[in-house]
Specification:
Number of strands of chain A: 10
Distance between the termini of chain B: 43 Å
Structural class of chain A: alpha/beta
Strand content of chain A: 15-25%
Number of strands of chain B: 0
Oligomer: heterodimer
CATH superfamily of the largest domain in chain B: MetI-like
Number of helices of chain B: 13
CATH class of the largest domain in chain B: Mainly Alpha
Shape of chain A: globular
Number of helices of chain A: 8
Strand content of chain B: under 5%
Structural class of chain B: mainly alpha
CATH topology of the largest domain in chain B: MetI-like fold
Distance between the termini of chain A: 45 Å
Order of helices and strands of chain B: HHHHHHHHHHHHH
Largest sheet of chain B: none
Helix content of chain B: over 70%
Chain lengths: ~240, ~260
C-alpha cells in the first residue's frame, strides 16, 4: 500500500499539492492535461525530487528520506530509459548487479518467456522495434519485483494498433505478477481500458479520484467533465456510421 | 539555376580552403630531399625530441583528463551561481597568446613563489624540466577535454540515469556503468584534440621549459640557426608521426562508437 501527501513549490511558480492512496495490486491512472504536474508527482514518489512537506509511506514505512535506489519503486519514463550501451541480457541482469545480489535465474527465465524476449537477449536497444523496446523495458522493471511500478506516459508515442496490443499486454502482466501500477497519461482511452482507479490532476491538484464507473457517473466539473463530454461526442459521432 | 551557382561557388571555395590547409603540408614533403631525410632519421637528437614531445603530451593529456572530466561533469549536471563565469574561464587558455601562458606559468611556478617552493620540497621543479613541459602542455590543452566532457555528459539523457537509480543502482554505479560509457566517445574526441594541441605547443615552452627539447622547439631552433632547409626534414618527420597518431586515435574512437 502506498500513501503519499506531496507539497512542493517550484522555482517557476508551479506548486504541487496532492494526496494519493494506492492499494496493493491495483492499476491506478493519473490522468491530466500537459503541465498538470503528473510527471512531477511520479518523480516525487520515485525520489528524484525533494518535496517541501508531506510524506510517502510504503506498506506503512516512511520512505521519503530514502534515495531512489532503496525505495523498491521502479520508474519507467516515456522514452523507456533503455541503456544504449547494454544488450538486452545486460538490461535484465542490471538490477541484480546494481544491488549486488545473485540473479534469480528462474525469475529471469519466467519473465523472458512471458514477455517473449528470449530471442532478443544479444541485441542492443538500437536493434529493437518499438514493441520489443516496450517489452524489454517492462521486463527489466519487473526483475527486482518492485512494490510499485511508475509508468510515465508509456503508450503515448505508439500508433493505435500497437497501443491496443500493449494495453492488453499490460493488463495481463498486471494480473500475472500482481503488480501495483501508477500510470500517468493524458489519454482518457488508456484510463478507461486500464484504470481500476482514476485520479485526475489539474494545476498540481487532484480534482477527482474513484473507479472508472465513478469517473463517468459522478464527475461534474473540470478535466473529468471535459473528457466525459468528449467521449460522449465521439460515441454520438460513431453512431452516425 | 541559382542553386547550381551556389553549389559551384561552395565547391570552388572548398577546394581553395582544402588547398589552404593541405598545401603547406604537401609542399614540405615535395621539397624534401631523400639525403636530408635519411640524415634526420639517423639523428638521435631528433628522435629524442620526438619522444619527449609524445611522452609529455601523453601525460599532459592524461592529467588533463583527471582535472577536466570532473569539471565537465560539474558544469553539465550541477546548477550554481557564477556557472557562466566558470564556463567562460575554461576557454581562456585557448584565447590568450601562448607566450603569455608561459610567462604566467613561470611567474606562478618558479622556485621563489610559495607554490614553486612547495613543489620543490617533493623534488619537482617546473623550469626547464619535463614537469614544466607537461604543465605548459596541460594548461594549453585542458579546455578541449573540459568542453568535450560537457558535450558528452549533456548528451546522456537524465531519465536514463533516473531509471538506473530506480532499478537499484547507486549514484556512483550509475555514473560508471551508464553515464561515463555513454559520454566516453566525446571525451575521447577531447583527449585526441588535447593530445594534438599539447604536442604542437611552442610558445609557452620557449618561456617555461626550453629544455629538454621537444620536437617543435628543435624545429624552431634548427630554423633559427641553420635556416629552412635544415628545419624541413625534422618538420616532415614530426608532421608524419603526429598525423599517424592523430588519425589512429580518431579511427579507434570511431570504432568504439560503432561497437
Amino acid at each position: 500500500m502506498l500513501e503519499a501527501k506531496i507539497i512542493k513549490s517550484y522555482k517557476n511558480g508551479f506548486s504541487l499539492g496532492i494526496e494519493l492512496f494506492i492499494e496493493p495490486n491495483s492499476y491506478n491512472i493519473l490522468l491530466g492535461p500537459s503541465g498538470a504536474g503528473k510527471s512531477l508527482a511520479l518523480k516525487e514518489i520515485a525520489g528524484f525530487e525533494k518535496m517541501d512537506k508531506g510524506y510517502i509511506r510504503l506498506n506503512g514505512k516512511e520512505i521519503s528520506k530514502l534515495p531512489p535506489e532503496n525505495r523498491m519503486i521502479v520508474y519507467l519514463p516515456q522514452n523507456l530509459g533503455l541503456f544504449p550501451n547494454l544488450t538486452v541480457e545486460e538490461h535484465l541482469f542490471f538490477p541484480f548487479k546494481a544491488r549486488k545480489i545473485k540473479p534469480d535465474k528462474e525469475h529471469i527465465s519466467n519473465i523472458m518467456k512471458e514477455f517473449g524476449i528470449e530471442h532478443l537477449i544479444q541485441r542492443m536497444p538500437s536493434q529493437l522495434s518499438g514493441g520489443e523496446r516496450q517489452r524489454v523495458a517492462l521486463a527489466r522493471s519487473l526483475m527486482i519485483r518492485p512494490e510499485v511500478l511508475l509508468l510515465d506516459e508509456p503508450l503515448s508515442a505508439l500508433d493505435f494498433h500497437l497501443k491496443m496490443r500493449l494495453i492488453k499486454f499490460l493488463k495481463r502482466i498486471k494480473q500475472k505478477f500482481s503488480l501495483t501500477i501508477i500510470h500517468v497519461t493524458h489519454d482518457p482511452l488508456e484510463a478507461i481500458y486500464l484504470g481500476e482507479k482514476i485520479f485526475t490532476i489539474e494545476k498540481g491538484k487532484i480534482t477527482f479520484f474513484g473507479s472508472v464507473k465513478d469517473f463517468f457517473s459522478n464527475s461534474q466539473h473540470g478535466f473529468a467533465k471535459n473528457i466525459k463530454e468528449q467521449l460522449i461526442e465521439i460515441k454520438n459521432f460513431l453512431k452516425t456510421y | 539555376m541559382s542553386k547550381n551557382i551556389l553549389n559551384i561557388g561552395a565547391v570552388i571555395i572548398s577546394i581553395i580552403g582544402a588547398f589552404f590547409i593541405a598545401g603547406p603540408i604537401i609542399h614540405i614533403f615535395v621539397k624534401l630531399s631523400s639525403k636530408s631525410l635519411i640524415a634526420t632519421l639517423k639523428d638521435g637528437v631528433v628522435w629524442h625530441s620526438i619522444f619527449h614531445s609524445i611522452y609529455c603530451a601523453f601525460w599532459a593529456t592524461v592529467l588533463g583528463c583527471f582535472l577536466g572530466i570532473p569539471i565537465g561533469y560539474v558544469l553539465s549536471r550541477i546548477q550554481f551561481r557564477g556557472k557562466s563565469v566558470v564556463e567562460s574561464l575554461i576557454n581562456i587558455p585557448v584565447a590568450i597568446p601562448h607566450v603569455a601562458v608561459g610567462i604566467a606559468l613561470l611567474s606562478l611556478f618558479n622556485q621563489r613563489t610559495f607554490i614553486g617552493h612547495l613543489f620543490r620540497t617533493i623534488n619537482i621543479s617546473f623550469v626547464d624540466t619535463v614537469y614544466g613541459i607537461v604543465l605548459a602542455m596541460m594548461f594549453v590543452s585542458i579546455s578541449f577535454i573540459i568542453s568535450s566532457s560537457i558535450v558528452g555528459f549533456n548528451s546522456v539523457d537524465k531519465e536514463i540515469e533516473m531509471v538506473a537509480r530506480s532499478l537499484g543502482a547507486s549514484h556512483t554505479y550509475t555514473f560508471f556503468r551508464i553515464t561515463f560509457p555513454l559520454a566516453l566517445p566525446s571525451i575521447i574526441r577531447g583527449f585526441v584534440l588535447a593530445f594534438a594541441r599539447s604536442i604542437s605547443e611552442v610558445g609557452a615552452l620557449l618561456i617555461l621549459a626550453y629544455f629538454p627539447k621537444t620536437a617543435p622547439i628543435l624545429m624552431y631552433e634548427r630554423f633559427e640557426e641553420y635556416g629552412l632547409n635544415a628545419a624541413r626534414p625534422v618538420c616532415a618527420l614530426v608532421i608524419f608521426l603526429c598525423s599517424l597518431i592523430f588519425f589512429t586515435l580518431l579511427y579507434l574512437n570511431k570504432k568504439y562508437v560503432r561497437s
